[in-house]
Amino acid sequence: MARTDLSRRDLLRAAGLAGAAAPLAGLGTGVWAQGAAAQPIPIRLSWNATAVCVSPIPVAVTQGFFQKHNLDVELINFAGSTDQLLEAIATGKTDAGVGMIHRWLKALEQGFDVKLTASLHGGCSRLVGSKAAGVTTLESLRGKAIGVSDMASPGKNFFAIYLTKHGIDPEREVTWRQYPANLLGLAVEKGEIQAIADGDPNLYLLQKTQPDLVEIATNLSGEYRERVCCVLGIGGALIRDNRPAAAGLSRALLEASDWVLANPEAAAQICTSIAPKTGVEDLQAILNTMTYAHHPAGKELEREVALYADDLKLVNVLRPSTDSAAFAAAVTADVLS
pTM, whole model, 2 decimals? Predict the structure, then answer.
């Protein structure tokens, strides 16, 4: 783990640039009185400091949502694998983390003492094809190569499921090829792949510079239009020993997600600290493709986890013998009831 290069001061400076459109939401006198009466609870929250889709995290810092719930949150930029992150949360090296559900569920199957308590949004994974290669529909993917940045990436896992549900065998009828994310566009231009499954902002920016790339599907297509993508996982020890802190962290991120939905331009301005090479207009466009209104917790989150477990069994990511409902109940915790 490495402490994020983005300090609280950096994020607050970005929030200041957002101007009057970004007031400190929900910080009434009752909240300040509570904060004065109790020492803020220190929480170490791990995240990917370059992932625009987790904008509720810098929003929660700059707009006072963590402070509202009496939390002193230290952001830790985690660059390791999902297994390493969950192990860090389970062993108390960090208290909580945010990540993509299609990457987390396989790791959680191993039994880490980490519970999913809330979520941030749906969306942020897309599948695009090359018009020049004749790949503009799911059907046209047969016999073609799809580029991914990681063979265990959320995009790979999700679109393998999506192809399966649309009658295309993701192991026999398409080829998956791995490239660094910044070389996926070049691989299309060289004809080594004919499609890309990845996330934003990478694909959004690629499509701006390579108009040959057209969207085929997203993780909000069809039955997935109201499904979660990024989730909050909290260490079991924190939930058992300090349930109010776990609840406060969960509520803060749910409220910050609502704030992003209501204030996309201000949220985009705040996100310039985590994506300095992307303009505010592009960041706002990216945020507008995600469903920040959809961030289930409690039993609704448990239900969606069970549905995703069913999906992941279809493509042999989870064990076929896994009981999806029991698995979902085991890896989620309702800390808000």
Answer: 0.87
